[in-house]
Specification:
GO terms for molecular function: endonuclease activity. With 270 residues, this protein is α/β, with parallel strands linked by helices. The protein has one domain: TIM Barrel, CATH 3.20.20.150. Helix content is 42%, strand content 19%. The chain has ten helices and twelve strands. It has an eight-stranded parallel beta sheet with strand order 8-7-6-5-4-1-12-9. α8 runs parallel beside α9. The longest helix is centred in the middle third of the chain and has 20 residues. It is globular and about 50 Å long.
Length: 270
């Protein structure tokens, strides 16, 4: 069992500017000092990190700089999160070009998981067939991940096709990809996290933990999600996989959220 923390809580989330005009250049990017963020997370107690795709590929031409940064902070990169539209057939080739770039860099720094989010919602809403198009797109991404020795897993996410229970279940009936349940995103979208985990337990690759309260995402133990129930259930099933804490979009102090979450895990998971 490994414990990781997502670096994206330590700065504003943006998209790379080139992606405005070129689909192949669309990516997430956290505006933070990557090296200092790694050190902060490690000093609190987490030995592993997850980053957004842009915070990995910006070092693609100088991967040794990133490796040195990780070594200096004494952390390892467990996973990288990537998003795409997936449903626009004429753009899919360029989106897969980006997936390939991410997977290549991820392999070079020892990443285990490619965490996939996405599925664009059209102006008029989700059309019949969009969920199947999303499934076909993520299956293509999974093929690329396998080529580089990565475990691809799908992360149901707010603001995407895979937000609500109906679409999530429909998607996962079309694709056999492994899953990365994020308990707070599931809850906010109306899917009981424990019911999802029970239903798809055999497909879980990695679990994302965060809490949820009336103000939004929150540090572990500071919201309404039955985290103890989720932990107890997966332990009862013999889960020996990895855990990743992500407190993105939190209005409070990022370091404090990381500290609170680590203390929660010390008392309830370790």
């Amino acid at each position: 069992m490994r414990l990781g923390y997502m670096t994206n809580a330590f700065g504003p989330l943006v998209g790379a500017g080139a992606g405005v005009t070129s689909v192949k250049d669309i990516r997430y990017l956290t505006m933070c000092d990557d090296g200092e963020t790694m050190k902060t997370i490690r000093n609190i107690g987490f030995e592993y990190i997850e980053v957004l795709d842009g915070n990995l590929t910006k070092y693609a031409e100088n991967i040794d700089e990133l490796k040195a940064m990780m070594k200096n902070a004494n952390v390892q990169m467990m996973s990288v999160c990537i998003g795409a539209n997936f449903i626009y057939k004429d753009a899919l080739e360029d989106e897969m070009e980006h997936v390939e770039e991410v997977c290549k860099a991820a392999k070079e720094v020892g990443v285990t998981y490619l965490v996939i989010c996405g599925g664009a919602i059209r102006k008029g809403g989700i059309r019949p067939g969009d969920t199947k198009l999303l499934a076909e797109g993520i299956d293509e991404a999974e093929k690329i991940a396998k080529k580089y020795g990565l475990i691809a897993c799908f992360h149901p996410h707010l603001g995407s096709i895979a937000e609500r229970p109906k679409e999530i279940d429909e998607l996962l009936s079309y694709s056999n990809i492994k899953v990365c349940p994020d308990v707070a995103h599931l809850a906010a979208g109306g899917y009981d996290p424990q019911k999802f985990i029970e239903k798809y337990y055999d497909r879980i690759a990695l679990i994302h933990l965060k809490d949820l309260n009336s103000e939004g995402f929150a540090p572990l133990g500071k919201g309404k999600i039955d985290l103890k129930g989720v932990i107890a259930y997966v332990k009862s099933r013999g889960y020996e996989g990895d855990w990743l804490v992500e407190v993105d979009g939190y209005a409070g102090d990022a370091r404090e959220a990381c500290e609170i979450s680590y203390e929660y895990l010390k008392n309830n998971l370790l």
